[in-house]
Each structure stands twice: as structure tokens, then as C-alpha cells.
Amino acid sequence: MHITKSNEDYLEAILMIREEKGQCRSIDVAYRLSVSKPSVSVAMANLEKMGLVVMEPTRELRLTRTGLRHARRVLERHRLLSAALIRLGVPHEVAEEDACRIEHDISQASYDGLKAWFDRGETALAGPS
User: Fold this and answer.
1) Is residue 7 a contact partner of residue 43, using CB atoms and an 8 Å limit?
2) Which of 17, 37, 41, 45 is deepest in the core (most CB within 10 A)?
3) Calpha distance 7→128 (Å, rounded)
4) Cα-based angle 3, 8, 11 (whole degrees, multiple of 5)
């Protein structure tokens, strides 16, 4: 199954909204991502077909186990990248926007290295020895 950057954004948005509000509806996703309600409807239909999201009879969006796993991975990357950029002196708003872009494209090896650096609490980046 190939999950696009757009799909990842939708999954991440659903998770974030559910964390904040306890529930998530399509209109919440549209507002969060600054997209139209019809765009969300199309995306949710695709995510449902992929087995990542379920639309409850109450119109609430729920992530499946697989959808939740993908959403958590993207959100974890976003949070770490944003925090690392802020630690490097990047303004908060810029760090959030850049983290949104980077979270989809960073290799696992680079992410793991950055995470290890961040977890060590280092404040300076070490260059090649």
C-alpha cells in the first residue's frame, strides 16, 4: 500500500484533532488543513478504501489500527523535527511549517540520527571527524 504525502497529512490531522478534542469530523479536518469539505470527503473515501479510516454512523472519523500506526509515525516525526528546528534557533512558526514538509521525505536513517542527537540533548551539531 502506497500512502501519499497528502494521505499522511490527513491521517496526522485526524490524530491531532482527536488528541485535542476527543473526536474528529470531516469539517474539523477541512479547517485544520485549510481545504474544502469536498476535498476531505474524497480523501476520506480513499483512506477508507485503504483500510486506514472508518467513518462512524455519527459521522465521526476514526483511525483503524493501521491508520493509527501511520498517523503516529508522521506525528512523531513532525514533533521531533519541529522541536529540533526550534532548538537550532528557527522561529516556531517556520519550524512547524518546515517540519510539515520534511516529515514526509526524510529517510529513516537521517531521522534516526536526528532523533539520537535530539535524545542526547545536544545543543550543537557535530560535523564529520
Assistant:
1) yes
2) 17
3) 36
4) 115
CATH number of the domain where residue 45 is located: 1.10.10.10
- Asked if residues 90 and 81 have their Cβ atoms less than 8 Å apart, the reply is no
Residue 37 main-chain phi, psi, to 5 deg = -60, -40
Q: Is residue 17 in some structural domain?
A: yes
CA-wise closest residue to 46 among 76, 4, 14, 86? 4
- Domain shared by 57 and 104, yes or no: no
Residue 57: Cβ-neighbour burial (10 angstroms; 0-12, 13-18, 19+):
exposed
Task: Provide the residue range defining the domain that includes 39.
Answer: 5-69
The pLDDT tens digits of the residues spanning 20-58 come to: 999 999 999 999 999 999 999 999 999 999 999 999 999
C-alpha span between 115 and 77 (Å, rounded): 9
DSSP-H helix ranges across 1-129? 5-21, 26-33, 37-49, 65-87, 92-105, 108-120
Report yes or no: 18 and 32 within 8 Å, Cβ to Cβ: no
pTM metric for this prediction: 0.86
Cβ atoms of residues 54 and 64 within 8 Å: yes
